[in-house]
Design brief:
- The structure is a single chain.
- This protein is mostly helical.
- The protein contains 3 helices and no strands.
- Helix 2 runs antiparallel to helix 3.
- It is elongated, with a radius of gyration of 17 Å.
- The two termini are about 20 Å apart.
- The mean pLDDT is about 80.
Length: about 70
């Protein structure tokens, strides 16, 4: 569990280029320029990270509980 969290945090803080914008956000970002567009993209990724971690944690705990019940 600790290993998964550590890897997730490490990947989160790496400077990976990812496009996480919908078509409306992309058009807005193109009008703002490179700096604000990068900030907007980073914000979208940041806001998506927490719910995905919660879903992953719930899934992991469910899997672990089901595994424990079957033994």
């Amino acid at each position: 569990m600790v290993r998964i969290i550590t890897i997730s945090i490490a990947l989160f803080f790496l400077n990976l280029s990812a496009m996480a914008q919908c078509s409306v956000c992309t058009k807005t970002a193109q009008q703002l320029g490179d700096g604000p567009a990068h900030g907007l993209n980073t914000g979208i990724l940041y806001l998506a990270f927490v719910p995905l971690m919660v879903i992953g944690l719930i899934g992991y705990r469910w899997w672990k509980n089901e595994k424990h019940k079957s033994n």
